[in-house]
Description:
The complex is a heterodimer of chains A (about 100) and B (about 150).
Chain A: E1 2-3, E2 14-28, H1 31-43, E3 45-46, H2 48-71, E4 76-88, E5 91-103
Chain B: H1 2-39, E1 44-45, E2 60-70, H2 73-85, H3 90-113, E3 116-131, E4 137-150
Parallel strand pairs in B: 1-3
Antiparallel strand pairs in B: 2-4, 3-4
Amino acid sequence: MLVSNLEIIPGKEITEHFGLVQGSTVRSKHVGRDLMAGIKNIFGGELVGYTELLQEAREEAVERMKEQARAIGANAVVNVRFSTSSVTQGAAELFAYGSAVRLR
Amino acid sequence: MAQFQLEIAITLLLLFLGYIFGRHAEKSHFKSIIAREEQHQGLVAVSVKSPTQDDSTKPGMLVTGSVVISVDYFKRFLAALRTIFGGRVTSYETLLDRARREAILRMKEEAKKLNAERIYNIKLETSSISKSASGNIGAVEVLAYGTAVLRVNQ
Lengths: 104, 154
């Protein structure tokens, strides 16, 4: 399953379009990470725990998007976009979407 | 009265700690950013959407880089003061600058691992992921992503 945020997949030819596919996940931070974040809020710097959390969540969202694409018979997703939104205090939604296509 | 004095003392201590450690953290971060940017200069990353004729025959792949970064107590205090008079909030400007450059660098680092030649269609996305009760921005997340065109060995 090839993924790209261009309108094409370089080196391949698109033969069929299947429409929009999407994947999302809502993740919450946990108390330990929040404690570290509180400390970092005083001293400044990178919140490594949060970076990892969001990275993992984003990979999961992409994975779900790929699964959806696989289910409808596509073998690539083009024009992928990411979006993040905080749903409530302490939880964030990671969302990935794109167009499922078949390549030759 | 004693309690009030204690509160002021704690605030001053936090401001002092934030100033010392925050300044140090920012300085060393900028240093590492500048050094790594030089190192990755060979890998061109553009926001152009369509690859050149030559590149469009090579395999491509999505690459991402992200960072969550927080401002220190002292700078947050300065930013709060700024809202009284208005104007440029330099302390947040440098925070976002650091975050964006770091995210782009991480994306480039990932692309380098895949032996990429160029990165096309770079998108940057910024979101504030945690807000304190008073509504101040606590930390920002920046995500950079694009499509890496991989080098083909002849």
